[in-house]
Amino acid sequence: MSTTVSAEIITIGDEILFGHILDTNTQWIGLELTDIGILPAKKTSVGDRYDEILEAFRRAFDRYDVVIVTGGLGPTKDDITKQVLCDFFETELEIHEEALEHVTAFFSKRGREMIESNRLQAALPKKCKYLVNHWGTAPGMWFEKDGKVLVSLPGVPYEMKELMKHSVLPALEAHFSLPVIVHHTIRTIGIGESFLAEKIADWENALPKHVKLAYLPSFSGVKLRLTGYGSDRVALTEELLKYGEGLNMLAGIYIYAQNELEIEEKVGQLLAEKGATLATAESCTGGYIAHRITGIPGSSTYFLGGVVSYANEVKEAVLDVPSEYLKTYGAVSEQVAEAMAEGVRTRLGATFAISTTGIAGPGGGTEEKPVGTIWIACAGPQGTVSRKLQLGTLRDVNIQLTAMHVLNMLRQSLELD
């Protein structure tokens, strides 16, 4: 019978700790381990310091079944992972003939000189199993002790990923008797995490012990991730889908997808299904919404274009916003937001149009209209709707939240149309 197999992921390198390089390896490894039934229990990042790396290995190997290590395998003096591994497993380095042949061929094919530091890439701990890195010179290394496994991989993401996919993951599946872990994601929008938790509390409390719920809030809404543990992948997947359907009964108005779709992808699907088109008129978001929409492959089938009407003169001349609206109500107003949406819809001949106008910050606010005051609107065949947002003082946050709200407004209009 399979039991829970847990793992720790360790990244090595000052460049990660200092923020010079973004650690994408840990996220990717965590997803891949989960897919084969290994539970990522902890992640650790350490700098290029011998004592700290050694202590990280000791702690991880004491607590978990699998330890995945990335980084510190290059040819420079700061790359000390191999020496620490030797001391941890009580062994020593030796030139591995297969690894040497690989490194030699690697440089020969590229017409580059084989210097001593590159030759030392083939020096491996005697107790490791050599994992060939067909995409670089840093080796992969597999260690076993007391039924546990430690794998050391290069930190370069594409090299690490190929080694994981072709060598490490299949070997882990063969080494352990693994349970099945299945994730099911429900995407919600337009409701805060605490309000959502209160609304679905009884449903959450009734979940069985082998099903866990996680709340994952972001600017795009709150993701609800159901994780099930069992032995039958098909049955477990069906079970999670049923729980998702039950959740839809409680919070359906806020749920826009039962998968990993972003809101702009959902909107694109709805537009494509209806054979409808979209145009945007942006002031305070400065083209960010158009950027998100056009980031989706195939968006050219429904997105006609957009206008970034930052200045009032552009609102008047290009979007036909009446000058009296600007004078009487101001650029940040319900009337102007609606006129912008209607204007760009007419100008570009779109089925639907959305608009934003507001004070993103950090300056520009008044007592009547403080920073974070934003109006959004959506114009379509059934008319125009608008809404006032009262956000905070952080510019980037306000832009992202505004995009989320207006795209959700468009989704709701499309679903009602």
Précis, in short:
It holds the Pfam family MoCF_biosynth. The protein has 417 residues and is an alpha/beta fold.
Overall description:
- By secondary structure, this protein is α/β, with parallel strands linked by helices.
- It has three domains: 5-175, MoaB/Mog-like domain (Molybdenum Cofactor Biosythetic Enzyme, Chain A, 3-Layer(aba) Sandwich), CATH 3.40.980; 180-257, Alpha-Beta Plaits (2-Layer Sandwich); 263-416, Alpha-Beta Complex (Maf protein), CATH 3.90.950.
- It is 41% helix and 26% strand.
- It has 16 helices and 17 strands.
- A six-stranded mixed sheet has the order 2-1-3-8-7-6, with helices on both faces. The protein has a five-stranded mixed sheet with strand order 14-13-15-16-17, sandwiched between helices. Strands 10-11-9-12 form a four-stranded antiparallel sheet, with helices on one face.
- β7 and β8 form a beta hairpin.
- α2 (25-35) runs parallel beside α7 (157-175), α3 crosses α4 and α11 (263-274) runs parallel beside α16 (395-416).
Features:
26% strand, Molybdenum Cofactor Biosythetic Enzyme, Chain A, elongated, CinA-like_C, 3 domains, CinA, CinA-like protein, Maf protein, alpha/beta, 417 residues, Alpha-Beta Plaits, 5-stranded mixed β-sheet, 6-stranded mixed β-sheet
